């Protein structure tokens, strides 16, 4: 049984790249550097606390853009991996198909995301939640206000 499961996992990790590239080009998803939104956000907070408003605006905008990019890549990779799996499987046993899909999908999504985002460190749930409830936008709004008021004085 262990050999059978090992063979299933080994067979699961193949992907087709021609269809992926066409879809990525249409979505305008490109590879980015390995600097994540967590690092950009912490740099933005440092600039914000030092009242360097122009740098804070720049870093907050980059952090928000990188967070959105990460979400787009995650959705794209999940859909692509799901479609690749469903086109390849012909298994009738539902339990076996579920386990095969779980193993295949996790590894496929990880590889796909790594290809487009690079290797990144773990991001805490607290920070991810801050981005999901739009905390950076509050900082960004005040930084925009300060930048615009500094131009007039």
Note down, in words, how this protein is organized.
This protein is mainly alpha-helical. 78% of the residues lie in helices and 0% in strands. The longest helix is centred in the middle third of the chain and has 36 residues, at 53-88. The radius of gyration is 21 Å and the shape is rod-shaped. The chain starts with a helix and ends with a helix. Mean pLDDT is 78; it is low at 1-32.
Topology record:
Elements: H1 2-12, H2 18-27, H3 37-49, H4 53-88, H5 94-117, H6 125-132, H7 135-152
Question: SSE order, as H and E?
Answer: HHHHHHH
Which bin fits the share of residues in helices? over 70%
Mean pLDDT: 78
Mind summarizing the main beta sheet? Answer: none
Show unreliable segments: 1-32
How many helices? The count is 7
> What is the 3D form?
rod-shaped
Radius of gyration over C-alpha positions, nearest whole angstrom: 21 Å
Protein structure class: mainly alpha
Tally of DSSP β-strands: 0
Strand content: under 5%
Distance between the termini: 75 Å
Give the gist of this structure.
This protein is 78% helix and 0% strand. By secondary structure, the chain is mainly α.
Please name the defining characteristics of this protein.
153 residues; 7 helices; 0% strand; disordered N terminus
């Amino acid at each position: 049984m262990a050999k059978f499961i090992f063979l299933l996992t080994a067979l699961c990790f193949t992907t087709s790249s021609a269809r992926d590239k066409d879809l990525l080009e249409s979505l305008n998803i490109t590879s980015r550097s390995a600097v994540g939104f967590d690092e950009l956000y912490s740099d933005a907070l440092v600039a914000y606390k030092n009242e360097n408003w122009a740098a804070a605006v720049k870093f907050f905008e980059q952090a928000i853009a990188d967070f959105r990019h990460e979400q787009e890549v995650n959705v794209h990779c999940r859909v692509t991996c799901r479609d690749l799996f469903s086109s390849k499987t012909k298994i009738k046993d539902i339990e076996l198909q579920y386990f095969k899909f779980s193993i295949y999908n996790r590894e496929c999504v990880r590889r796909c995301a790594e290809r487009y985002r690079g290797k990144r460190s773990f991001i805490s749930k607290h920070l991810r939640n801050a981005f999901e409830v739009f905390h950076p936008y509050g900082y960004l709004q005040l930084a925009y206000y300060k930048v615009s008021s500094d131009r007039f004085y």
